[in-house]
Amino acid sequence: MQGILQGDRVLITGSSRGIGRAIALAMARAGAQVAIHYHRAAEAAELVAREIRELDRECIVVQGNLEDADQRARMIEAVSQQWGTIDVLVANAAATAFKPVTELRPYHLHRTYTVVVESLVDLVQRLLPLMTQGRHGRIITISSQGSHYALPRYASIGAGKAAMEAMTRYLAAELGPLGITCNAISPGVINTDSVRYYAAERYESFLSRIAEATPLGRLVQPDDIAAAVIMLASPYARMITGQVIQVDGGISLKTPGFEGV
Ligand SMILES: NC(=O)c1ccc[n+]([C@@H]2O[C@H](COP(=O)([O-])OP(=O)(O)OC[C@H]3O[C@@H](n4cnc5c(N)ncnc54)[C@H](OP(=O)(O)O)[C@@H]3O)[C@@H](O)[C@H]2O)c1
User: Which of 28, 39, 48, 105 could serve as 57's disulfide partner, Cβ 3.0–4.6 Å?
Assistant: First the structure.
């Protein structure tokens, strides 16, 4: 897919690490100019930026806590000052507390929904003038299977991602007349810092059980998500909008309990 995003300007939230980092590097390899966003991991963000510049692609780095409206305004202002236009927003960053519903406190919910839902709406509103000046408009949200399934200790982010998917559909309907598409990608389990934190001491056995249960026979890799993002950002996806695309190797097709029947 080299060159398929040639000249596009893309902003990826939470691209210092994990899936966001892989998306940023893959989009740069596909020809895009990339705005890296991070919250705390300044050094990691600069490393990604250096790798992108080594590919001879323009890269800017913006910082901001997505929980904070002023910081969101400042980061979009920085993109606006440096570029003036944007073609693709990838809403990838997330923050949450992994707890059963009975242990969730209002601030846990507030934090998750602010980063996952409120910041999506705010960033889209702020980027719209830049996106309508761009070559085309693409919004890609990174959801999760917990939006649909009741996963252990996943209620806060799972409900947040369900709202994110609904918002993705509303954005698709409302921004379609401006030529902007909006789709979500729902990844399977991917080996990143957040999964290590989620599964804690059961991390390795969790990953091997997921790989075994996956019809395509392995864990999803960050680059598998990046490939789907590039497809959705590319001209090939010009009439796809309002969809949630599972990139999970087929694991969500199966219902536990039927093994050996
Ligand atoms: N890993 C999986 O198995 C999996 C499965 C399904 C869906 N997802 C989704 O994929 C996305 C990326 O997940 P990941 O596993 O790659 O996560 P990760 O490695 O933990 O990275 C999270 C990213 O979000 C940023 N971030 C966290 N809190 C933030 C805040 N308050 N404001 C701004 N940025 C913030 C982090 O910035 P800093 O580095 O600066 O802290 C980092 O770049 C998330 O939306 C997640 O829900 C992941």
Answer: 28
